[in-house]
Specification:
Elements lengths: L7 E7 L3 H11 L8 E6 L4 H11 L6 E5 L5 H11 L4 E5 L3 E3 L3 H11 L3 E5 L2 E5 L5 H7 L5 E2 L4 E2 L6 E3 L8 E5 H6 L7 E2 L2 E2 L3 H11 L3 E4 L5 E5 L6 H20 L6 H25 L5 H25 L1 H8 L5
Parallel strand pairs: 1-2, 1-4, 2-3, 6-14, 7-15
Antiparallel strand pairs: 4-11, 5-15, 6-11, 8-9, 10-14, 12-13
Helix pairs in contact: 8-10, 9-10, 10-11
């Protein structure tokens, strides 16, 4: 049976990072796939960036559509791109990424060959801006297939198609109709503040709908890692973000009373007291045990902070239980 050819749209959200996103757009120009659509969604609309895009397009092989989205939030930027896009398959990435030339062609082949595949991810490999410290390289070896703190993923050399497949937002593709049917991405980061579980929430919604998610090993993305992300402080920050995501995911399907939230907060205090007591004694250390203690403590503090905000803020409680963001 002849495979249906799919059209592809690439959506690149950005927020106040003009030099970084221009590097990303230059890399996209090297794709072997012909005829794809490229959209840049500016979540802090900037006339200077728009003018840079106009100049860029004068020599671009694939021209960039500039989409302003003044409503703050990564999910708003992603959804503005999804609404404006015309492709059957929407490919999402971050503005601090670069791409293997066969990135989009690999996705197009797999979506054409596997009509049952609703979404897919691919490898995310580090592009170190400076050599990583030895302690970080050693810590990453605990699980060579995945290091979520830096959004790195390298699951397999073989194509996979599973009902419990995963993807990271820096390298994911989804059929347009599947994205809209699922209600889109959950909220994630608003400027610099983390409020929800973003593409992880979308991942869970696809699982709940019984849809198949692929892993495409030839759809390779390189994620730039600057020196400031190779620090213990950054690992703690990312764990704090994940702590906020934990609470969003926990209460997304049902919000308890304020008293119920208070009981959940007390449980976190009881569960995390040992880590909180130990964390000051190991703060800044880079041996694996000390890193794990610091990361657990940061995640637990963020969970507690999120619960307190839920108790005090009815608007946040309403945001957490909202189902459809498209």
């Amino acid at each position: 049976m002849e495979c249906a050819v799919v059209s592809v749209s690439v959506v690149v959200p950005t927020y106040k990072r003009s030099p970084v996103v221009m590097r990303c757009l230059e890399s996209v120009q090297q794709q072997t796939l012909a005829g794809f659509e490229l959209l840049l969604v500016d979540n802090s609309p900037d006339a200077e960036l728009e003018a840079r895009i106009e100049r860029f397009n004068q020599g671009a092989r694939t021209k960039v559509r500039y989409i302003p989205e003044p409503r703050l939030g990564l999910h708003n930027a992603r959804h503005a791109g999804a609404r404006a896009a015309t492709g059957d398959v929407l490919v999402f990435t971050d503005d601090d990424a670069a791409f293997d030339p066969d990135w989009l062609a690999a996705y197009a082949r797999c979506f054409s060959t596997h009509p049952e595949m609703a979404a897919a991810g691919g490898p995310v490999r580090p592009a170190w801006e400076t050599p990583p410290p030895a302690w970080l390289s050693a810590f990453m070896q605990a699980d060579p297939t995945m290091f979520p703190v830096l959004s790195l993923l390298d699951l397999s050399r073989e194509f996979q198609l599973r009902p419990d497949g995963i993807f990271f937002g820096v390298n994911m593709a989804i059929r347009r109709d599947a994205l809209f049917a699922a209600g889109g991405f959950n909220p994630e980061i608003f400027g610099d503040r983390w409020l929800g579980d973003g593409e992880t929430g979308l991942n869970r919604k696809l699982w709940a709908r019984g849809q198949m998610i692929g892993y495409v090993p030839d759809a390779i993305v390189y994620h730039y890692v600057p020196p400031e992300r190779m620090t213990v402080a950054y690992l703690r920050k990312r764990q704090a973000n994940d702590g906020a995501c934990d609470m969003y995911a926990r209460f997304h399907d049902g919000m308890p009373s304020v008293a119920g939230l208070a009981r959940a907060a007390l449980a976190i205090v009881v569960e995390s007291g040992r880590d909180w007591a130990a964390e000051p004694l190991v703060r800044g250390r880079t041996d694996p045990r000390a890193l794990r203690v610091q990361m657990r403590a940061a995640r637990a503090w963020a969970r507690l902070d999120y619960l307190v905000r839920l108790m005090l803020n009815p608007g946040l409680r309403s945001l957490v239980t909202q189902r459809n963001w498209l």
